[in-house]
Amino acid sequence: MNKKRWIALLVAAGLFFASIGFQFLSSMLTADFENMFSIPEEDGMAEKVVEQGSNMNKIAVLHVNGVIQDTTPSTLINTTSYNHSRFLKKLEKAGEDESVKGIVLQVNTPGGGVVESAEIHDKIVEIKEEYEKPVYVSMGNTAASGGYYISAPSDKIVAHKATLTGSIGVIMESINLSELADQLGIDFNTIKSGKHKDILSSYRDMTDEEREILQTMIDDMYDDFVQVIVDGRGLTEDRVRELGDGRVYTGSQAQEAGLVDEIGTLDDTIAMMEEDYELGNAQVIEYNQGMPFNQLLGGTVQSMLGSESQLSGITELLRQENAPRAMYLYSR
């Protein structure tokens, strides 16, 4: 390599590291220093004060963003996507903390796994019964399928008029590649212990018996979904089944149908809780997971990588989802 190429390489490297420094400095200048260096408690979570008020009367705002799945995203690059175990810990912390007088869930999700959605639902019911704390839901752009499932047991559901919600139902999908494989001359050899061991295989047609088996499973999960809404919203089973044909509703339509209580924003939802439970001087908080510096660094890396970090997340999702599964999920 000649001298000019070495110089060009050094200049490029210098520009790269200068860019990193600029991104980091920009993050530092725009960071919330009051909360950045708060000390995490034993559970690794630190409180971030969103609205000042009495620290003996708190409202905890917890965010459900992204597909509800029990996956473990990278803690460095992916600092904002949904983390199931982390969310359950936050929910438990808000329930146990005596200074937290109410919980607001900001739900922005198309749904997700059947089991994960049920775990959140059950935790909300437990908090309401054991700690006697109100739980309100503020719906974002989308709060469909599993997003509605976890909202149903709350004391009040508030949606934006343009929120997409509903999508009450269960879905399980697979791809049949058998015809394509035949055209390409590809053979698949399967050794199995029973005739249904490769049910929903992508390499052969589904039998009528297998379809009946899977439909029975889906119907059972759907019955559970219906019962959750009956218990949480006080609607009749017939009415829920009428509404729950899989379609989505706008927030305004959902309010007319009785699936949503009020139309409003997250701030409106917090204000409603303050008024309903005489918490006018409440301190509104959120929970940060881990050291705030890691979150800052992770956000900087994510902003630099841009679409590459999103591609990494999609790749990870595909890697973990090799097998078909039943989902409370609104998919298009």
Give the arrangement of secondary structure elements:
Layout: H1 3-30, H2 33-36, E1 45-51, E2 54-65, H3 84-96, E3 100-109, E4 111-113, H4 114-130, E5 135-144, H5 146-151, E6 156-159, E7 164-166, H6 178-184, H7 208-233, H8 237-243, E8 248-250, H9 251-257, E9 262-263, H10 266-276, E10 282-289, H11 292-305, H12 307-320, E11 327-329
Parallel strand pairs: 2-3, 2-10, 3-5, 5-6, 5-7, 6-9
Antiparallel strand pairs: 1-10, 4-11, 7-8
CATH secondary-structure class of the largest domain: Alpha Beta
Please identify the structural class as seen in this structure: alpha/beta
The global form is globular
What's the order of the H and E elements? HHEEHEEHEHEEHHHEHEHEHHE
How many distinct helices?
Answer: 12
Key words describing this protein structure:
two-stranded antiparallel sheet; 332 residues; 2-enoyl-CoA Hydratase, Chain A, domain 1; alpha/beta; 9-stranded mixed beta sheet
Short description:
By secondary structure, the protein is α/β, with parallel strands linked by helices. The chain has helices at residues 3-30, 33-36, 84-96, 114-130, 146-151, 178-184, 208-233, 237-243, 251-257, 266-276, 292-305, 307-320, and strands at residues 45-51, 54-65, 100-109, 111-113, 135-144, 156-159, 164-166, 248-250, 262-263, 282-289, 327-329.
Give your account of this protein's structure:
This protein has two domains: 1-30; 39-170 and 246-329, 2-enoyl-CoA Hydratase, Chain A, domain 1 (Alpha-Beta Complex), CATH 3.90.226.10. Helices cover 46% and strands 20% of the residues. The chain has helices at residues 3-30, 33-36, 84-96, 114-130, 146-151, 178-184, 208-233, 237-243, 251-257, 266-276, 292-305, 307-320, and strands at residues 45-51, 54-65, 100-109, 111-113, 135-144, 156-159, 164-166, 248-250, 262-263, 282-289, 327-329. Strands 1, 2, 3, 5, 6, 7, 8, 9 and 10 form a nine-stranded mixed β-sheet that branches. The protein has a two-stranded antiparallel ribbon with strand order 4-11. Helix 3 runs parallel beside helix 4 (114-130). The termini are far apart. Residues 27-37, 74-80, 300-310 and 312-320 have low confidence and may be disordered.
